[in-house]
Specification:
With 745 residues, the protein is of the alpha+beta class. The protein folds into 5 domains: 116 residues, Alpha-Beta Plaits (2-Layer Sandwich), CATH 3.30.70; 296 residues, 3-Layer(aba) Sandwich (Rossmann fold); 87 residues, Immunoglobulins (Immunoglobulin-like, Sandwich); 103 residues, Sandwich (Immunoglobulin-like); 102 residues, Sandwich (Immunoglobulin-like), CATH 2.60.40. It is 15% helix and 36% strand. The chain has 12 helices and 45 strands. The strands form 12 sheets. It has a 7-stranded parallel sheet, sandwiched between helices. The longest helix has 18 residues.
Length: 745
Amino acid sequence: MQRRGGSCQKIFVIPLLFFLFLCLAAQAETIPGQLIVKFKPGVVKIPKGLTVAAAKAASVSAASVKALGDKYQVVKYRQLYRAALNVRPDWTQLEDIYVVEFPKEKNITTAKADFKKDQNVIDAQADLVVRAFDTIPNDTLLSQQWALTKIKAEKGWDKTTGDANIEIAVLDTGLNYNHEDFSGKVDTTNMYDIVNDDNDPIDDYGHGTAVAGVAGAIGNNSKGIAGLDWKVKILPIKVLNNEGKGSISNVSAGIEYVTALKSTGVNIAVINLSLGQYIADSVLETRCQEAHDAGILVVASAGNENVEAPTYPACYASVLAVAATDQNDQRAIWSAGSASNYGTWVDVAAPGSAITTTDMDGGYSNWDGTSFASPYVAGLASLIKAANPAMTNVQLTNQITSSADSIDSLNPGYEGKLGSGRINAYEALGAILASLSSPTNGEYVRGTKQITGTAGGWDFNSYQVDLLKNGSVEANIISSSTSVDNGTLANWDTTSSDGAYTVRLRVVGTNVSTTDVSVEVVVDNSIPTAEISSPADGATASGAITIVGNAEDVYFDHYVLEYGAGSAPSNYLAISPPGRTVATGEYYSAVANGALGTWETVGLSGPYTLRLIVYSKAGNIKTKTIGLNLSNSGQPTKEIKAMGTLPGTFALPNPLTGEAGNRSTSFVYDLEGNFNTTIYLFDTNGSLVWRNVYLAGENGGKTGVNNPAWDGKNLFGENVPNGTYLYQVTADQKVIGRGKVIVLN
């Protein structure tokens, strides 16, 4: 998933007044008496069938680890990924990672250092605290769920209300799975309590039940509330305790357990993480990435401390970060110092104020926090998946973020820091779809331009393509009631329009809602100017010729100077700009009645053709040719030498590799004049392997850059064997450079 702008590692300049608050918010809170340790294989083993209560009886084979256990009075070696290994015992890379527990009064820093330097330990880290991102729920039960109307859920339900075969894993404080609004829709087979290491994740705090209700409480059952997805199954994984707190290790174990279930065929589409803290953790990041790579969309809340600093796991690239908004689409503020976090690391926003949802006591209550914005996104993802089963988690992310309603104008000072906007269920479910694939933004167009893209969706009514100038509609290109799926929307005759324009596609739904996409283009139907004023057509010339003329266009791109032997050349050779290191005659500055280039004709005689070609950015072309009679007599009078440095080896590729008949490499060198040139190739014994002669004026013997090729064959057309070869370049029988090439077949 592409992170939307910014970076989790961004350094923020903070006024001094807030320094203490942010320092406290960003401190890593370690869990006393607990380390995450990765041992070398077989150092610690839990006998099969051993109960959790007896886990302290784990077998430790290394004397140094036993000594550390005695020093710190270790009471338990808890295999961290036990739940995942029960599902996937072949994931042996997780076997040797343990949570080592010892008395809380022991110094965690010293213990970490001692374990880390032990020769039987690969790594050791302190376990960190994570918390549910919630504020205290209020006691007022609202009569209606304003958030569902705000995100247009009711219209989205016309498309789908979910699929009971899809699951959302809620990693939280557990779930009151006996609640009337979860009847028959909890995955009781696979639910798990990581905190107590058993199969009963009953909620003893309330946060998890509230979060699950937002995403997936039963809809249309004449009871309580409607979750965003009426039918999705809830998979409760308890990773937080009865205080709404937990450890990085438990969250990591929970994610890995869900990933393991996914690999066995359990249809888990989304993981919701309404929790986090302010310190990045590489283990947690890895677990999130593994879940993402397994095809699960991981969604996390941004936090409630009213700061721009990133939280984790929300800020990881593999996670969709969610901020909270209120009834007015403004960043949610609940009390002094308690408001939705924000930043360029946030991906999207969702309602998170006064959210009516399920309560762990079997009733309903109102909650605030980004914890309740996140499950709206999770529920939306499962709805989209129900409507589009083939969608990947990356496509789900793009669908959610690209269909969100922009709220930047309602949040001055926070533009670009609440993600792409507040989610819109109706739009995200593909109610009306609009996209342009051609022309592209900034493109130069001419003639008849084919406009392609998509105009459709399940609520599609019609579309129109308009041409806008300076923000106002100048012309309607097409209006149609026929949907188009990645095809031709219109054929636009641009010949009556020149200059900068906006091409806008507007798709209209049956309820008259609209969605627009547009691109900025430049129409260029003008023909470039290509003129040669000197030398004159048919003139006799010799030596270095300065070519004068015009190469211009309103939207000029480049021009080319070339020459060829005779009055109707079969091929042309480039007259390169000074200093050019490849054999090309392309010039990228327009010329108005000035010098176009210089052609060194020394060594050439007889009729030649000079050609000027001018290109516009839209691809319009104008060509001018003149004939010249070159009268250079005899041999060149200039000194024979290479201009610049002749490479000591082939330019590209070198070594010469590839399949026979489908490979070549080039000698690249400059000549000061046009000379008959010969390249010789010898093996290391001095025997001639290959030779080629280039006449003055052709590639290999012309003024400026030359790049004659060799295909790896000898004088008899056979592939040369592997090895090192020596070459020599001569002009008029004088050596101007030597080098070598290595052949690898």
